[in-house]
């Protein structure tokens, strides 16, 4: 028939079917695939020849030799080459997180999460979950969520706030690990990295991909649950204490924690909300599918223009993906608008800042604030430019391949 490059890589690939999805796991990278591709790879992994696989396709899918050949050329061979590249690079699964560094080793995470998993026992989960939601709602509705100005705190207070907030974020990641441990999965390391320009913590709980969706959702929400729990003693202390300085610091921590929870639930970034939405609606590779959805919908409508109800029925069928796509593009427009305003105001304020700095003495926090704004603006510009250059390189590479 024809040679099949990359077939040997299947020895390093784990095939998983959890009743809902067909998954490929290679060096920590996880892919969702179709039943057909899964079955083909299963046969190849069992050292069946291409001729045997082709006979199987003919018997079970009524594919003739030419159609089977086209399937291999269009799907199987590129997939094997991609898996071979991943195995060679050995990149972590969450490749959207850059400059990853381990903070807690897997052994430490497993020991601590094994102790904390009791918080996911049904009685404790219901009791503490209800109490935490109630207290956080009381605080949100009855007290101001306005953050105090950072420069109103002393250097020592600012350092203390940073340490407490970092511990809460670490507790959030431990929530994911504890939920995974409760379900029998082995959580791996907790680490630090950068998502776009922003520092993030992450917990490697990739083993849960083989679990049913509601168990995956439990792990996805474990971090938010632990953040809600962290606010319980903080809110109680806020209600009990009378010292204004202490209440101001507690208010800052509680409010920041609530805002981080809200941010984590945004589905348009690869946060907890993204994975919850993806798992709940069984939409693997959600971000890529949302990017391709308008093009695919337009193509489908054109191909079925004779059917007047096709467009509406197609949208109804893919309603969760349609809603996410609309929201995602609206979010992108909002971010672009916000960045444009940031760029405009930063340039304007920088001019005024330089004039003021040349004629008078300024406080350190004023220099720090302007330096931070300039660094954020330049960082976003650099990231956008790098991404566009990467996209152009991919297009050029695709053009070279197509022209051969």
UniProtKB/TrEMBL annotation:
<feature type="transmembrane region" description="Helical">
    <location>
        <begin position="249"/>
        <end position="268"/>
    </location>
</feature>
<feature type="transmembrane region" description="Helical">
    <location>
        <begin position="153"/>
        <end position="171"/>
    </location>
</feature>
<keyword id="KW-0472">Membrane</keyword>
<feature type="transmembrane region" description="Helical">
    <location>
        <begin position="367"/>
        <end position="385"/>
    </location>
</feature>
<feature type="transmembrane region" description="Helical">
    <location>
        <begin position="192"/>
        <end position="212"/>
    </location>
</feature>
<protein>
    <recommendedName>
        <fullName>Peptide zinc metalloprotease protein</fullName>
    </recommendedName>
</protein>
<keyword id="KW-0812">Transmembrane</keyword>
<feature type="transmembrane region" description="Helical">
    <location>
        <begin position="224"/>
        <end position="242"/>
    </location>
</feature>
<keyword id="KW-1133">Transmembrane helix</keyword>
<feature type="transmembrane region" description="Helical">
    <location>
        <begin position="319"/>
        <end position="347"/>
    </location>
</feature>
<feature type="transmembrane region" description="Helical">
    <location>
        <begin position="124"/>
        <end position="141"/>
    </location>
</feature>
